[in-house]
Amino acid sequence: MKVVAFNRTLQGSGASRRLRTAGQTPGIIYGGTEAPQLIALDGNALFHALNKENFHSSILDLEIDGASQQVLLRDFQMHAFKRLVLHADFQRVDANSKVHKKIPLHFVNVEVSPAVKLHAAIVSHVVTEVEVTCAPQMLPEFITVDLANLDIGQSLHVSDLQVPEGVTIVTHGKNRTLVSVQVPAAVVSTEAAAPAAPAKKGGKK
After folding, report:
1. Domains of the chain
2. For residue range 140-179, what is the model confidence (pLDDT) as tens digits?
3. 6 and 35 in contact (C-beta within 8 Å)?
4. pTM, to two decimals
5. Which terminus of the chain faces fewer neighbouring Cβ atoms within 10 Å, N or C?
6. What is the dihedral of CA 23, 80, 87, 1, to 10 degrees?
C-alpha cells in the first residue's frame, strides 16, 4: 500500500497547528540506522487510509520526493471529536530483521456452525487481533479463524490458529480464548420445558 509524504523542517506545537490548518498531518519516521525524519502527510488521505484494515497491518511503501521506503504504522492520534488526525508515527522496516505486529482475525462460517445453526447460540469474539513475528515479506494482512465446526461446550484458543509458514504468534505465555459461546436463556428455557416423549409400553397382550 502506497503512502505519499513530504519532508518538514519546522517542529513544535505552533508549526504542527499550522500544518493541520493547511490540511496536513505532522508525522515522524524512526527506526533502523538512520535518524528520525519529520514528515507531513495529506490529512484527508490519511484519515481515509486509517479506515482501511490493511493500512494498520501491512507493510507500507512510503514515498518522499520520489524515493520509497518500507514502513509500518506504529501509532496515531485522533482529535477528540473532529475528523482530524493529529499525528502519525511510522517505523522503518529492515528486510533482514523480523517485525512484530498485531494482525486482525477474520472469523468465518459462524452461521453454519452447530452452535448457531442447531442451538441458536451467540458467538462472541473475545480476541480480535494477535501479535505475530516474522520476516517482513511474510507478514499476513489477517489470519482466518474457521468456526464451521464450533459447537456449544467447545472453545477455540490462540494455539488453535492456523498461521502461514514462517509466522509465529507471540502469546506472552497466555493461550487466550478466541471466542465464547452462549445459548440465550429463552432457548434454554424452551428446551427445558419441552415435554418428554412418552415411554413405550412393554409386554405382550
Report:
1. 2-92 (2.40.240.10), 99-184 (2.170.120.20)
2. 999 999 999 999 988 899 999 999 999 999 998 899 999 9
3. no
4. 0.81
5. C
6. -80
